[in-house]
Each structure stands twice: as structure tokens, then as C-alpha cells.
Amino acid sequence: MTSQASRTAEQADEPLLSEQRDPAGTKDVRRLDRVIIRFAGDSGDGMQLTGDRFTSETASFGNDLSTLPNFPAEIRAPAGTLPGVSSFQLHFADHDILTPGDAPDVLVAMNPAALKANIADLPRGAEIIVDTDEFTKRAVAKVGYAASPLEDGSLEGYRLHQVPLTTLTVEALTGFDLSRKEAERSKNMFALGLLSWMYHRPTEGTERFLRAKFAKRPEIAEANLAAFRAGWNFGETTEDFAVSYEVAPATTAFPAGVYRNISGNLALSYGLVAASRQAGLPLFLGSYPITPASDILHELSRHKNFGVRTFQAEDEIAGVGAALGAAFGGALGVTTTSGPGVALKSETIGLAVSMELPLLVVDIQRGGPSTGLPTKTEQADLLQAMFGRNGEAPVPVIAPRTPADCFDAALEAARIALAYRTPVFLLSDGYLANGSEPWRIPDVAELPDLRVAFARERNHTLEDGSEVFWPYKRDPRTLARPWAVPGTPGLEHRIGGIEKQDGSGEISYAPANHAFMVRTRQAKIDGIEVADLTVDDPHRARTLVLGWGSTYGPITAAVRRLRTAGEAIAQAHLRHLNPFPANLGSVLARYERVVIPEMNLGQLATLVRAKYLVDARSYHQVNGMPFKAEQLATALKEAIDG
């Protein structure tokens, strides 16, 4: 969630505890204010599905939450190896939280590789649940253990639960007509049932999900349900789990409304649909599948009933070309991609700048360069979005800050594109795209009016008195040119990439005209109306931390920790990166020190230093993972003291 409210418990190293007995009086029930759980296993163990189901039930229960899926780029890495480990981390609480958490309180490790890949992230005293059936001599040796960590004493500092998950799952499914291998595939559901018991999660939603998912194979649905219930019953009856935990709903964290759990890519998809409806235009997506943007194509393809048309092109260039053609035809044109795809689309984006047509370019950033880290996150496409085209081709750039905020960012990108007749970059990233949080479903009346007026009549009178249509005769406020749909009688006009004559749109090579058009296109972008930057500074600090995009959660969590410790620090977060808010310069001038954390090597810091001549300090990482709150808090404390 994005509230600025804080509470001391969130900054504590351990969750707050209180204890009671369960109604039957057989086991302790401990109340926690928050928990961080990480499910980890082989790519084929279903960890993403397990985490997603646990998240969905947690959302329905009313907790605030934040998630971090983490999986390999390979379709299927070798089983039982470190490169093949897939994990899903969930942080849920009875209060407002901002990140998936720095360190798990609970690790569910389905094999030795999962344990070894994640053990360094666990604090001492954390709970570890392992599938002992997978800790064979060969599996242990495959990941470099000299001896089984379950036996060599290396896990003595943790609360270790050794559970034969595979054996128990197979035994639970003995009544089903399944091979052992088929039965073993349900062990993730056994683990989900066990964790659902441990944390008092609802189960009805998971049972409905399994029946729907395997509707065409009811025997598989029933087997998974049996494994799920067996895991729950195991937690209820075994002596190894003497305690279960409750995390109350976050009743004070949310404004009143109807909520659902939503990922960044899903929120962005819904935002695009809402934008097209608010604009009264059909939505056209021209796209080529690429991780981590493909989910937007998948989701939008389901919404033909809202006038959405999706086109899976043969390559990135065709995708953006089709989207631009749809924009020329009067649709809300969208293309989605990730970093390598932006490079391929750059020529057509430049064409859109020249033609001055609305186009949304959605870049779900990932680790680069080239193929880089397809399933990891990064913020390294900012300078590419700003300058990655030939010639002077300015394009507005905006960035959402949380998964739910992707909905609003899509609406804002559409507003700018439609009002100013320009392509717009929307920079999300893999962390936001795959992560999730509660989202308040807005009332339609709250959404902005994005309706546009197409050109219907000739708009210019020549010296001889004849009426003609000038495609580059501009709105004096926005400098946007008229949008004339092909086929409108009398409004025929020339388009293309060659420079146009101001007003008439005829081809022009005149130096003075080219200089005028270049400056006019720049002035149009510079003049886009964006909200002033808001600053959270309750204590008149001397240090400002400035962020953009998905760093919002870790930065805000770090700021909360510092303020709880008595430090004064100000925070501001940019949504609009081109143009910058009009008051950004005056905001920066108020502070002695400005720190800019980024998941790149200092791209926003470079822009800020160049434009405002401010000695902004860059704090950055490029390891494919989001910042941790404690890491940022330490860096910001050093900046305050420095």
C-alpha cells in the first residue's frame, strides 16, 4: 500500500507476538503483526502456483501484502540444481506494508538446491520446512554439500521441521488411480495445506480454484484437493508443529472500498482497458511476446467484449508498426515489450514522433544489456526511453511506483498521448509486473474523462478564400495537431517520416522550417501539464531521497525506519520523468543533500545533475533484485551523517 502512515512494529527485526490457546485447547496460537514466507523448490515443483494461491487467500482474508516471485529464465533448468530454483516470497501484515520484506521468517525448501540457494537470506531463528524425501545423498552432492545439512549441525540456529512431504503426499493419494510420479506432483498442494493451517488461511478459494483449473480432469482436481487437505490435517495432528499463527486483517490500512489482489501487469492491462473506455476509442495492442511483458498480451486478449483487439505480430517491429497504424485509424494504439524490444521499435517510435499520433509504448524493464536477465528486474531503460531514437525525438516518460499504481499510470499515459498527440513511454519493470498487492477497485465516476474530438471539418482558409485541411495546424494550448481519421471527406492529408511543412503538412526540406518543427515538437513535450512534485518532509530535513518507479516501496520503508529511529529525512517520488514536474528544481534547491536510489548505474541522477546542476548522490544496484529496506536505510543514514 502507499500510505505514508507508519508504526513501530514494522521497523522491528522480529514480528510482534502474542499467545493464546486454540478453541480445542490442544495447540498454542500465536498472534503476529506480520510474516514473511518464501516457498522455494525446483522449477517443476509449482512454487509460483503455491505462492499465488497462498497470496490469494491472504488477500481475501484482508491482510495487506506484497509479493516477490523469483524464477529462472530457462523453460526447465536441470532438476535439483541451483540454476533451476524457483521461489515466491510473500510479506503479509495486519498493517500497511510496502515491500515483500528483507528476510523470510519461514522458508519452505522442497529440495537441497532450494535450501542452499536461500539459506543466506534467513535470519537466525527463522523456521525452515524441508521435504526430507528429497535430501538423498545424490541430491545433496549435486548442489555441493559435503554432507546433508539436515545432519551436520549447520541448521542448529534455525527452527527446522523435517517433513517427508513426498511420502505423505503419495500416501494421501493411495486411493487414486495415479502413478507415483503423478501423485508426487501434488506435494506442493500438501505444502500449501500445511502452511494454510499454520497461518489460519481460508481454504475455500483454493478448493474452487483447483476444481476450476482441472475441470476437464476431475480426478486430478480431487487428487490435489486430497493432498491440500492432507497437508492441513498433518499440521493439525503432528507434534512437530505445536504452534500455529494468526495475522489479523489490516482493518486500518485501507480506505473504505472493495479490494482485490492484483499484479502490476494485470493492473496495467485493466488500466489500458479503462483508458480506452474513458476515451471512447477501441483499444489495439500490437505486440510480440517477451518476458516479462507477455502477460499484458495474454490478459488483453481476453477482453474483446470491451472493444479490445490484440495482434501477436511476427516481430517487435511489426507489433509497433501495427499499433501506430491503428492510431492513425483512430484507435488507442498500444505496444508492449521489454528492453531489447524497445531497441527494435525505436525507428517506428521516431516515426510516431514525426507523425504526431498518440501511441503508448509500455516497457516492462528487465536486466540487460541484450538478452541479459529476462526474469529479473532493473530500471536501466530510462535513458533509452529518453534518448533512444535518431534525431531530436522527445517523448514523454512516466513510471508507476507499485503494482496497483500501474492502473493509474496507464490512465495517465493515455491522457498525455491523446491530449498532446504523442507517443508516451510507460516504464514499469519485472518487480512491479510480477509482484502483487491489494488494489481498491475504483468507481467509474472516479476515472478521468479522456474523450477526444476528431477533426471533422476543414480548418484553414487560404488567401484565395478556399477552405482546406491543414494536418499540422496546432491547438494553441497543447500544440497538438488535429487527429483526422482516414476516410473523413475533405480531410485527406499526407503522413510519413519526412519532415513536414508547419501547418500544411507538405514535405519540406527548408532549414528554417525544420528548426521550427524540431523546436515545436520539443515545446509540446515541455509544455505537458503534470502535477507538481509532492514532498513528504514532516521534520524539515536537510537530506532528500528522490526516487522513481518501483523503488518507492523500499525507499518509503527505509524512510520509515529512519524516522522511527529519530532521523529527519525528506522523501519525494517522481512519476513524470519527461517532462519533470515544474517545481522539481525548487524542491531540489531546498536540501543540502539529495540521494537518488536506482536499480541502474545512476541514470536519473545523471539527468538531475545535468538539468538542475545539483550535486545529487547516486546509490544504485544492478543485481536483478529490488532494494532491501534495511540496505537503503543504512545508505541513507550515511548520507544524513555525511
From TrEMBL:
What UniProt keywords apply to this chain's record, in alphabetical order? Oxidoreductase
Location of region: Disordered: 1-27
Residue intervals of the Pyruvate/ketoisovalerate oxidoreductase catalytic domain: 44-231
Write the protein's name.
2-oxoacid:acceptor oxidoreductase subunit alpha
Q: Which Pfam families match?
A: PFOR_II, POR, POR_N
Location of the Pyruvate:ferredoxin oxidoreductase core domain: 541-613
> What sequence ranges are listed for the domain Pyruvate flavodoxin/ferredoxin oxidoreductase pyrimidine binding?
284-500
Q: Which InterPro entries match?
A: 2-oxoacid/accept_OxRdtase_asu (IPR022367), PFOR_II (IPR033412), Pyruvate:ferred/Flavod_OxRd (IPR050722), Pyrv/ketoisovalerate_OxRed_cat (IPR019752), Pyrv_Fd/Flavodoxin_OxRdtase_N (IPR002880), Pyrv_flavodox_OxRed_cen (IPR002869), THDP-binding (IPR029061), Transketo_C/PFOR_II (IPR009014)
Organism for this UniProt entry: Streptomyces griseoviridis
One MF term in the entry's GO annotations: oxidoreductase activity, acting on the aldehyde or oxo group of donors
